[in-house]
């Protein structure tokens, strides 16, 4: 199956490998790219104590090359959404890493079971606020440090025309609502119901799926769990 991957380049390459291992043909179309603010992350780590919450592996990539500054923080408990993000945290030296399920809600619940102290949330922009809102609902004290921003990538119309004429995908993967909105805005010419007929839109969550135009909602499938393994199982 030919699968269009809309993730940023680094994450997209990892997904492409998983797709090839599953026997599919990936097409990479990064629709956003991260802009890192390592100073904000290191400043926040230096001004806080206690647990650290992470909802994206992109956070780990922000701080990964600053081992000297990180050394003093590697014994802090880290709570991460999903096994993949948790593994990334362990890779750069964090010693006490706990993985929650695949949502911010589950992350807050996991932290609450073991930690009552303040929590530093190393976050990106834009983001769903599920973790922050539920954490506050259950009494966690959250400090938010925005350490990266996802910037939409401009895709040339010719690139899209080439993909949908010569490499027409059987399925398109969407991991974030922002990416889905950007895709359907950019690829409007290719996404008329007649041209998109037969393409499946596989979405990580209900919120992501809501960005698919109403005329194409019949081709949408939502992952049972908001994690990549669940999404890829839909193929």
Strand order in space, largest sheet? 3-8-7-4-5-6
Estimate the helix proportion, in percent: 25-40%
The appropriate CATH architecture of the largest domain is 3-Layer(aba) Sandwich
Low-confidence stretches: none
Helix and strand pattern: EHEEHEHHEHEHEHEHEHEHEH
CATH topology of the largest domain: Rossmann fold
Structural class: alpha/beta
At the first level of CATH, the class of the largest domain is Alpha Beta
Shape: elongated
Distance between the terminal alpha carbons, to the nearest Å? 8 Å
Number of strands: 11
**Rounded mean pLDDT score:** 94
**Which value, in Å, is the CA radius of gyration?**
19 Å
Largest sheet: 6 strands, mixed
Strand content: 15-25%
């Amino acid at each position: 199956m030919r699968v269009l991957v809309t993730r940023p380049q680094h994450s997209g390459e990892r997904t492409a490998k998983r797709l090839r291992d599953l026997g599919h043909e990936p097409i990479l179309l990064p629709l956003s790219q991260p802009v890192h603010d390592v100073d904000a992350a290191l400043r926040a780590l230096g001004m806080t104590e206690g647990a650290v919450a992470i909802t994206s592996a992109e956070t780990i990539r922000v701080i990964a090359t600053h081992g000297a500054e990180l050394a003093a923080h590697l014994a802090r408990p880290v709570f991460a959404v999903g096994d993949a993000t948790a593994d990334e945290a362990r890779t750069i030296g964090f010693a006490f890493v706990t993985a929650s399920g695949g949502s911010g809600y589950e992350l807050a619940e996991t932290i609450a079971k073991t930690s009552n102290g303040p929590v530093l949330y190393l976050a990106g922009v834009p983001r769903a606020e599920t973790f922050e809102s539920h954490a506050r609902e259950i009494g966690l004290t959250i400090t938010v440090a925005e350490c990266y921003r996802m910037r939409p990538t401009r895709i040339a119309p010719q690139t899209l025309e080439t993909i949908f004429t010569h490499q027409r995908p059987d399925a398109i993967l969407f991991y974030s609502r922002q990416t889905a909105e950007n895709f359907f805005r950019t690829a409007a010419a290719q996404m008329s119901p007649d041209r998109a007929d037969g393409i499946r839109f596989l979405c990580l969550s209900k919120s992501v799926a809501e960005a698919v135009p109403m005329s194409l909602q019949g081709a949408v499938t939502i992952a049972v769990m908001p994690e990549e393994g669940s999404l890829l199982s839909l193929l």
